[in-house]
Amino acid sequence: MIHSFFLIGLSKSSNSCVCFERYFVVVVVVVVVAVFVVVVVFVVVLFLLFLLLLQVKAVEEIRNIVKGSSAKDGHNELELAVSAEFRQWLKTSGNLRQVSDLMALSAVSPNK
């Protein structure tokens, strides 16, 4: 059907031939622009994947640092500091008595 349409358009007159050439040029331009857009999107996706890979490598390096022995010592120091500050807050806020009472109740009553 498309083939016969082009033949009819070509056989009518030279004006329809010029019209066909214009449509052909428009179709070619649209196809070229579409291919260009696809290529640009592909390059952007590759770039974003590259950035994601860099972030994954950075996270892996941080995990390796945290797993190291010096990180364990730092973690223990941090835990002790937070614990000390929490105890100080319990004393200054007056909540130490409530926590002590809760601990005494939990020690007396068996778990169900």
List the helices and strands and how they pair.
Elements: H1 2-12, H2 14-67, H3 69-93, H4 96-108
Helix pairs in contact: 1-2
How would you describe what is shown here?
This protein has 112 residues and is mainly α. The chain has a domain of 42 residues. Helix content is 92%, strand content 0%. It has four helices and no strands. It is elongated and about 100 Å long.
Oligomerization category of the chains in this entry: single chain
Number of helices: 4
Question: SS-based structural class?
Answer: mainly alpha
Cα radius of gyration in angstroms: 37 Å
The chain-level mean pLDDT equals 79
Which strand-content bin applies to the residues?
Answer: under 5%
**Main sheet characteristics:** none
- Strand tally, please? 0
Distance between the termini: 82 Å
Globally, the shape reads elongated
Give me the strand/helix succession.
HHHH
Specify the helix fraction band: over 70%
Summarize it.
With 112 residues, the protein is an all-alpha fold. It has four helices and no strands. The chain has a domain at 71-112.
Main traits of this protein?
112 residues; mainly alpha; 4 helices; 0% strand
